[in-house]
Amino acid sequence: GTSDLATVESYDPVTNSWQTEVSMGTRRSCLGVAALHGLLYAAGGYDGASCLNSAERYDPLTGTWTSITAMSTRRRYVRIATLDGNLYAVGGYDSSSHLATVEKYEPQINTWTPIANMLSRRSSAGVAVLEGMLYVAGGNDGTSCLNSVERYNPKTNTWESVAPMNIRRSTHDLVAMEGWLYAVGGNDGSSSLNSIEKYNPRTNKWVAASCMFTRRSSVGVAVLELLNFPPPSSPTLSVSSTSL
């Protein structure tokens, strides 16, 4: 059998080790996570019985989780991004339909507010912020995995399409690094993927990058700049199975 987890682990690149942190207040799988102002936010997901709209945040200085205002919509397979000091909960699945809706969380007033809907319904999409724009790539619309990509301009509250990925991807991850977007792994509807492609916003094109050693879907990706860590290095793309 399987169980939905509340456990959390943190990785120390200096010692190359994982350690257990304080568990969340709620069991969550298929949730959205993001860091903002030194706090780790966890929103939505599935607790083994129902899709969730609850959200909480972790303070690493005190080692405590605190509940925040719930989202207006229950969201499983949701993705979270940070932009201009706010959180954005993007798409997901509410137990009956795949969602095009997006809501914004303002931590100063502890409030979620709906913004313009995406052009497509998407659950398990990849989300990332690059040059002041929120990008959403791939996902599943309830019928098939997608390769389409769109981006949100917070100044105009509008979405526009950009070049599609070369491969259909759902349950992948999307990260920004050194002016590029990287779409990592996922599932194309028939198999898990080890492929990676990167997007250049200046040319509006996706190109293939080096493949991972292992096929990975439901993957978690993060960029970590290794300062004072021999040998000197550029920001590093770290990939693992989902740990939250």
From TrEMBL:
It holds the Pfam family Kelch_1. The keyword Repeat applies. Keywords: Kelch repeat, Repeat. The keyword Repeat applies. One of its GO terms (biological process) is protein ubiquitination. InterPro entries: Kelch-typ_b-propeller (IPR015915), Kelch_1 (IPR006652). PANTHER family: KELCH REPEAT SUPERFAMILY PROTEIN, OS02G0202900 PROTEIN. This is Kelch-like protein 17. It comes from Notechis scutatus. The gene is KLHL17.
